[in-house]
TrEMBL record:
A GO term for molecular function: glycosyltransferase activity
GO cellular component terms, semicolon-separated: membrane
Membrane topology: Single-pass type II membrane protein
UniProt protein name: Glycosyltransferase BC10
Protein location: Membrane
Organism: Prunus yedoensis var. nudiflora
């Protein structure tokens, strides 16, 4: 009984309260005045801002990764680059090449108690500057070796440092792959001596720009190879590329550079081990190839090492050549050209320059950094006529001072 009485009492109280509540609400609603409608200016401002923003975004596509996810346009790329496509599957030969190169590069070279520099001369015959090189070598007999590849006739040597230093040679034709074959032949012979730790390719018209100690320290106390390497988008650079080199050599990897290199022992061994890319260039980078002239001595090493060990390259040659005349061959120096100022100016150059073969002839300039420090770029120079020997001997002790 007690439980049934309480609910009925509560219901009565509830019904008694509701009419009074509704009456109060009606009175309040009648007594409160409704404010006049205001013009929605903030909505107009917001819509205007969004419209302006969308117009700007359309004409100036966003370039950052965050905004690219918010907007879609034909010009929108992450950090200005197209997203990378799927990696190409390597051929069996490429895989084998990568394995060999990586194993060589990660294996520290054998430490020699008597590390030497191999000076490798690529010449058609007699070397006109042997007497100058003798002045350069004298007193450092335990720090260098000499190798001579004479492609046309047996040299007549006047310096004791060159006697009996000829290797088996084959004919070399300018612009042909035989130039690269001769370079590899010189390297192979120089590698037979385990003390040789650095290898310099020189021509019969090359001269030293510094004294021996300076050159030795410059080459032996850095861990890079001085192989010239740059991108030339013009007809004498990328224009020489052939699609026959695919899939191993893509156009984006094709590089150009001077043939006159200086390389560390690890890179010399890597070059000896390479047959895949060596063969590609032998077959498809040659004169009169698909209506274009390709010269392997200017492209094989820069392209190969840029693909295999780009961080191991200095990207310039330590041999100075003057291409400012824009001809097929570099400037050659006569006796009247050889002065103290000329030689000192060359030795003081601290920036590497390249000129592309496009119509606009871009000038590419980069500082020569030796172990992170800006240093003079060149240790040797060419092309000097044989007639300049006397003048060079007179000036040698002066212009080679550091």
């Amino acid at each position: 009984m007690r439980g049934s009485v309480l609910p009925s009492v509560q219901m009565k109280k509830s019904f008694a309260w509701r009419p009074q509540l509704m009456k109060d609400i009606m009175i309040m609603s009648k007594s409160r005045p409704r404010p006049p409608l205001k013009r929605p200016t903030w909505i107009i401002a917001l819509v205007s801002f969004v419209c302006v923003f969308l117009i700007v975004a359309y004409f100036y596509p966003p370039r950052s990764s965050a905004t690219c996810y918010l907007f879609s346009s034909s010009g929108c790329t992450v950090f200005g680059k197209d997203p990378p496509g799927p990696a190409r599957e390597l051929t069996d030969d490429e895989t084998a090449s990568d394995v060999v190169v990586k194993e060589i590069l990660k294996t520290p070279p054998l430490q020699s108690k008597n590390p030497k520099i191999a000076f490798m001369f690529l010449t058609p015959g007699t070397l006109p500057f042997e007497e100058l090189w003798e002045n350069f070598f004298q007193g450092h007999e335990d720090k260098f070796t000499v190798y001579v590849h004479a492609s046309k006739q047996k040299p007549v040597h006047v310096s004791r440092y060159f006697v009996d230093r000829d290797i088996h040679s084959e004919q070399v034709v300018w612009g042909k792959f035989s130039m690269v074959e001769a370079e590899k032949r010189l390297l192979a012979n120089a590698l037979l001596d385990p003390d040789n730790q650095h290898f310099v390719l020189l021509s019969d018209s090359c001269i030293p720009l510094h004294n021996f100690d300076y050159v030795y320290n410059y080459l032996m106390y850095t861990n890079v190879s001085f192989i010239d390497c740059f991108v030339d988008p013009g007809p004498h650079g990328t224009g020489r590329y052939s699609e026959h080199m695919l899939p191993e050599v893509e156009k984006k990897d094709f590089r150009k550079g001077s043939q006159w290199f200086s390389m560390k022992r690890q890179h010399a061994i890597v070059m000896m081990a390479d047959s895949l890319y060596y063969t590609k260039f032998k077959l498809y980078c040659r004169p009169n190839m698909d209506g274009r002239n390709c010269y392997s001595d200017e492209h094989y090493l820069p392209t190969f090492f840029q693909m295999k060990d780009p961080s191991g390259l200095a990207n310039w040659s330590v041999t100075y050549v003057d291409w400012s005349e824009g001809k097929w061959h570099p400037r050659a120096y006569r006796t009247q050209d050889v002065t103290y100022d000329l030689l000192r100016n060359i030795t003081s150059i601290a920036e590497s320059t390249h000129i592309t073969s496009e119509d606009k002839k871009q000038l590419l300039t980069t500082p020569c950094l030796w172990n992170g420090m800006k240093r003079p770029c060149f240790l040797f120079a060419r092309k000097f006529y044989p007639e300049t020997l006397g003048k060079l001997l007179q000036l040698f002790s002066n212009y080679t001072k550091v």
